[in-house]
Design brief:
Helix content: 40-55%
Radius of gyration: 26 Å
Number of helices: 23
Distance between the termini: 54 Å
Strand order of the largest sheet: 6-9-8
Length: 539
């Protein structure tokens, strides 16, 4: 009988040993990674965290970029803190107070500096700010320069502390880490999704090409980085302010050596880099692309844990004026995929609890409570490829009075942990990238936004492609179901939802939307073609 041990993704031959000794429960992390999460506005944060990792490793050794993670060693890097720069941009209320003041230039500099130093926070010595006047001359030049950078702030109206605010990554000095109140790294806003993304791309078969692509992006950013360097003293420009200590108790961990999601993800990133777009345009597509591929990784891994191969159907409704079979199929498709995670938890742990070590204890002629104590000792191990899960609780905690009770408590706690950790990835990141929506309904379903469609076309279309060919590729690559041919090929869709006409209308709505966005064209012979405007410009 074939078991999960034989599965190409989650079988032990494809697992990496954890280098960590976690406290509490280690199930969710063993299945999807530590710490992959979804919170509000995580899309920007995970992208910035990823760039922070890339910039740090590039600064350390450019030739080793994207060569980390395949040996199972801990990802270690030293990101920028950029405390001085962030004070000037985000902790500069004194600049606001100068707006209505009509003073001689000398007095403006003096009054601003006095107010700025009152709120200035630094873990190091306070620099001599005379260099700012030497570089900018007039105070108003300095003020407008800071205002320009403030306008590049992500979520400029967000009421979060200045140490967790960021600007668009125009240069390497803008690729800095999230900081706590004590100005040390923390994993609250960043969560570690960016580190997981870096590890995924590093383990792809095209990692060396990614190294070239991102090296070029960073090299190009050096010119724009001068806008940031102008606010820094010479010493800070030569020796960047970096965070020496690690964040949190445990580093990021990605459990699988190989995974179909890695290459699929990396190939799409390379496709965008190959267009040689300006970095701002490229980043606008990479941000939702990252969220989309984390969703695909999560779903495919969950299905692997239940013995399935590949991705499940993702039935996409191109929003219709009223409900039809496509909408119903999309609602069912979303619900089915959304349940895969908890089913995976149940399946994997049920099989895990039938391991020989546990069976031997259950068959031993000792009291039920003694059996529980011995099982608890097993779960106090450091996770490894041969023993994936742990449940380290203090000696005063209860685990049930029998192996059966222990397993029920273990399973219930694992489900709760999953709900609080990876359980929102499908919904949260699905909404972030524009794949998931409630538009026109009370329930979530797959209803792609214009931005999501832009990302798909720019990523997957090179030469002009006929609509049916485009839809066929989306189905083969991502299991996205839009047209009637793909619906008929999809075994997960109920027969009652497979009528040809509704899916034909769905595809027709897609081509009309793409036409309105400048991404498609209908020819006189009735054929519809999808076009990538950036590729056409390159030609």
């Amino acid at each position: 009988m074939k078991t999960l041990e034989d599965h190409p993704i989650i079988g032990s031959s494809n697992l990496l040993d954890s280098t960590q000794s976690p406290r509490g429960m280690w199930v969710d992390e063993a299945m999807w990674g530590h710490r992959i999460r979804s919170t509000s506005s995580i899309g920007n944060f995970q992208f910035l965290e990823f760039l922070s990792v890339v910039e740090s490793l590039f600064r350390e050794a450019p030739t080793l970029l994207f060569s980390h993670g395949d040996d199972g060693k801990t990802l270690s890097y030293e990101p920028r803190r950029s405390i001085l720069l962030r004070n000037l941009i985000f902790n500069n209320a004194a600049l606001n107070r100068m707006e209505s003041r009509t003073l001689p230039d000398e007095e403006k500099w003096t009054e601003w500096l006095k107010g700025f130093l009152d709120s200035f926070q630094s873990a190091d010595k306070i620099p001599d700010f005379a260099y700012l006047r030497q570089r900018f001359g007039r105070f108003d030049n300095f003020k407008e320069h800071v205002r320009l950078l403030q306008r590049l702030s992500l979520d400029p109206n967000a009421s979060i502390r200045w140490t967790s605010r960021f600007i668009f990554p125009i240069g390497m000095d803008a690729m800095f880490t999230d900081l706590g109140k004590d100005l040390t790294r923390e994993a609250v806003n960043f969560m570690r999704n960016g580190e997981i993304i870096y590890l995924m791309l590093s383990r792809s078969s095209v990692s060396s090409k990614l190294r070239t692509g991102f090296t070029e992006l960073l090299e190009v950013s050096k010119e724009k980085n001068k806008l940031l360097e102008r606010l820094l003293p010479d010493e800070a420009r030569k020796n960047p302010d970096i965070a020496k200590t690690g964040a949190g108790n445990l580093p990021a961990f990605l459990p699988y050596l190989t995974h179909p999601a890695y290459d699929r993800f990396a190939e799409d990133v390379l496709a965008l880099l190959a267009l040689e777009l300006p970095d701002q345009d490229c980043f606008e597509f990479l941000i939702p692309l990252f969220s989309f591929h984390l969703v695909l990784y999560y779903l495919e891994t969950a299905r692997a844990c239940t013995g399935k191969e590949g991705l499940g159907a993702i039935v996409c409704e191109i929003v219709a004026p009223r409900s039809d079979q496509v909408r119903q199929a999309s609602l069912v498709s979303f619900a089915d995929n959304d349940s895969e995670g908890v089913i995976a938890i149940e399946t994997v742990l049920t099989e895990f609890f039938e391991r020989e070590e546990i069976i031997q204890i259950r068959d031993t002629a000792i009291s039920p409570i003694d059996k529980v104590r011995e099982i608890v000792q097993l779960f106090n191990r450091v996770p490894s490829r041969s023993w994936r899960f742990c449940w380290n609780l203090d000696e005063h905690s209860t685990h049930g009075n029998s192996p059966e009770e222990f397993f029920r408590e273990f399973l219930n706690d694992a489900k709760l942990e999953y709900k609080n950790k990876s359980g929102e990835i499908h919904r949260g990141l699905g909404k972030e990238c524009g794949l998931v929506s409630r538009r026109g309904t009370r329930n979530l379903r797959y209803a792609p936004t214009d931005d999501f469609l832009w990302m798909l076309v720019v990523t997957r279309v090179r030469v002009r492609v006929e609509l049916n060919e485009f839809l066929s590729e989306l189905f083969a690559r991502y299991r996205l179901v839009i047209g009637h041919k793909e619906a008929l090929r999809c075994s997960e869709i109920q027969d009652s939802h497979k009528s040809e006409n509704p899916f034909r209308k769905n595809a027709d709505r897609l081509i009309r939307r793409l036409e309105s966005m400048g991404l498609a064209r209908r020819m006189s012979d009735g054929c519809a073609y999808v076009e990538n405007p950036f590729y056409e410009l390159e030609r």
